[in-house]
C-alpha cells in the first residue's frame, strides 16, 4: 500500500503578551474583569434583591420541599418497580437488595410528606398521602408474593411442570422399550442380512433422535430459548423418518417386537401431545406466572401510586408557581436597574470575546479544520503550532497522534489482507470431479467478499455449490464462511442427503446465526449432487444454470426455484427437487450476479443474454478455455460486486 508523503505546516509561534500566557491566565484575566463589573452590578441590585429573597424564602420553606420530596418518592417507587421486574427477569439477588433499599427510602420520604401536610393543615394532601400508603402496603404484599413464587419454578413455570411430570417418565419408558427392541433384533438368526442391518440401524437412529428430541424439548421448557425449539423440530423430523422406516417393516418383526413397537408408538404420541402443551405454555402470556402477575396486578397498583404522587407534585408546583409569580413582579422592577449595567457588561464581553477569538477560539477553529481534513481522508494534514499555551501543546500532541494514526491504518490494512487470505484458503484449491473438467474462480469486490463456490467429494458422493450473500465486505464474508462450514458439517455426517434437505438445514442454521448477529443478510444458493451417467439433482434459488449442448452448440437455461436462505427459519415447503443431465461434451456454467450486473461506460448491464452469446460463440472448447473467454469478455466492464464463475465440462 502506498503512503502519501507528510507535509508538516510551519510551527510559527507569535510573540506577544497574550501569546506568552497560558489559557488559565488568559481566562483568569478576562474573568477577573467580568467579576469586577459583576460585583458593581450586584451592589446596585442588592437592595431590590432583598425584597425578592424574602418572598422566595417563604416559598422554599413550604412548597419546594413538598414538590421535591414528592418527586423523590416517585423516583424511589420507580426504582422499586424496576428492581422487582429485574429480579423476576434476571433472578439477580442484587435487585432484591436494591428493592429493599428503595422501599426504605420510599417509606421515609412518604413519612416526610405526611409531616409537611400536617404542618400546613392540608386535609386534601393528607387524604392523597394516606391513599398512597394504603396502596403501597397492598403493592408490597403482592411483591413479596411474587418473590416467593419466583423461587418455586414448578409453580412459576407451567411448561417446566408439564415437562417434569409428563415427559420424563415417557422418555424412560420409550428408551427402555427401544433398548429391548434392539436386543431382540440382535438375537434374530439372520443378523448378517442387509435387511436386518438396516432395521437395526433404523432402531438406533430412532433411539438417538428420540433422546435428542426430548433433551431439546426439556431445555425449551426450562429456558424458553427458541434454539432448543428449533433443535426439537430438527430431531423430530429425523425421528419421524426413522419411525416411518421401522413402522414399514413391522410385519417382519417378531410378536414381542411388535408389542414393543405398539407401546413405543403410544408413548411417542403422548410425548408429541405434551410437546404442544409445552409450546403453548412457553409461548403463552402466562409462561412465567410471576411476570404475568407483575403485569396484571403489580403494575396497575404502581401506576395508581404514581398518578397520586404526580397529582400531588403538580398541585405543589402550581402553588409554587403562584408564589414565584408574586416574586417575579418585584424582580421586574430590578430589571430596569440592571439594563444599564447589562449594556456595559455586553460591551465589555464583546471586547473580551474578540480577544479570546484571536488567541483561543481562532487556533481551536483552525485545529478543528485540520481534524475535518483528516476525517475526509487527508492523512498528511498537520496542525499549525501558534502559541505556547495548552492549545499549542494540543497541536503538538495532535500531530503526534496523527502520525500514530497513519501507523495504525497501515496495520489495519494488513489485517484486512489477512482476512482475505483466510477466505481464499477456504475455497477448493484444485477442484476435481470424476468424469468432468472444472475451471473456477472468485474475484471479491472488496478485500473480503460474500460469494462462495465449492466442489465437495465425501463418502463417494460429489457436490457442487455456488452462492451469493447480499452485499459484500467483512459481514458478507463472515456469512459466506458460516455457510461453507455448515455445508461441510452436514455432508460429513450425511453425504447422501437430499439437496432440498441440505438447503433446509442450512437455512435454519444461517437464520439462527443472523438473528444472533442482529443482521438482515440473505443469500442465493444452489447445491448440485452429481449422480450417475452425467445426471445432477439440485435445489435452491440462484442465477439460471447455463448448459451449452455439444450436439447443437446452443445454450439451455435451467431455471432455479425455491427461496433465498437467511430470511425465514423454515423454507422446506418452498423447496422441490429438480434434475438435469449433461451429455459428453456438454458444458455447464454457474455464476453469480457480479457478472451479469457488470456495467459499461454508458451504465449498460452485461446481462444474461450477452453471457449466453459469449458461451455459444466460444464453440466446443475446454472448460478452462470457456472460463477464460467469459472473464476476458468482462475486462472492459465495471464490476461492482463479487464475481464467481464455475465452468464444468463432461469428458466421459
Strand order of the largest sheet: 1-10-9-6-7
Helix content: 55-70%
Summing up helix and strand content along with how strands pair, one would put the structural category as alpha+beta
Compute the number of helices.
15
Globally, the shape reads flat
Task: Provide mean pLDDT, rounded.
Answer: 82
- Give the biggest beta sheet: 5 strands, antiparallel
Please state roughly what percent of the residues sit in beta strands, choosing from under 5%, 5-15%, 15-25%, 25-35%, 35-45% or over 45%: 5-15%
Number of strands: 10
From the N-terminal CA to the C-terminal CA, the straight-line distance is: 47 Å
pLDDT < 50 stretches: 1-10
Output the helix-strand order. HHHHHHHHHHEEEHHEEEEEEHHHE
Structure overview:
By secondary structure, this protein is an alpha+beta fold. Helices cover 66% and strands 10% of the residues. It has 15 helices and ten strands. Strands 1-10-9-6-7 form a five-stranded antiparallel β-sheet. The protein has a five-stranded antiparallel β-sheet with strand order 2-3-4-5-8. A hairpin with a 6-residue loop joins strand 6 and strand 7. The longest helix is centred in the middle third of the chain and has 87 residues, at 289-375. The two termini are 47 Å apart.
Please describe the structure with a list of short key phrases separated by commas or semicolons:
652 residues; alpha+beta; 5-stranded antiparallel sheet; 10% strand; disordered N terminus
What's this model, at a glance?
The chain is of the alpha+beta class. It has helices at 23-90, 93-120, 123-150, 153-156, 158-186, 194-223, 226-248, 255-283, 289-375, 390-426, 474-493, 499-517, 593-596, 607-618, 623-633; strands spanning 436-443, 451-458, 461-469, 523-530, 535-541, 545-548, 555-558, 578-581, 587-591, 643-650.
